Amino acid sequence: MKRLLAAALALCVATPALARKVAGVDFPDTIDVAGQKLQLNGAGLRKRFVIKVYAGGLYLPEPSKDAASVVAADVPKRVRMVFLRTVTKQQVMDAYREGFEKNSGGPGLKDLLAKLDRIAEAIPAELRQGAEMFVTYVPAQGTTVGAAGGGKVTVEGKEFADALFKNWLGASPADDDLKAAMLGR
Length: 185
Hints:
Layout: H1 2-14, E1 20-22, E2 25-27, E3 30-33, E4 36-48, E5 51-60, H2 67-72, E6 77-83, E7 87-88, H3 89-103, H4 109-118, E8 126-127, E9 132-138, E10 142-147, E11 152-155, H5 158-169, H6 176-182
Antiparallel strand pairs: 1-2, 3-4, 4-5, 5-6, 6-9, 7-8, 9-10, 10-11
Helix pairs in contact: 3-4, 3-5
């Protein structure tokens, strides 16, 4: 009886958590990035006023509830966005620019914004409802932005990655509720 109970408990502990569903979008428990398994840290909705813009999920090697630590960590990480309404490239780029200005201002902002302009190549003119976009950082490679119907662009440098991830996790994120959800709060 004790062996059966021990086996049942071990099975429960070894069973992975179920994938998370946000606004009808499935976020798998784990993904592979550059040969490393990343775990879903949290997922939620990006809203602009009351309008649902996208469902977003944050993937990390180890769970964390500390935004500053997540940004500072020189480890693979990914934000996956699935759009719930159609948005334009200009709207996405404006949101990123605003996030850079609010969270990464200072003497290096001009250089960061120039690098930000490079990712526009990866974003199609419109991201229609259901379109996916990824922001993936891999140490020594850089930050890759990719979108359905667009392409992929990689921008070198940890400083750029930090600035981009601060759009979700910085002191002035685009959406406080999404930040909390991505941090599993």
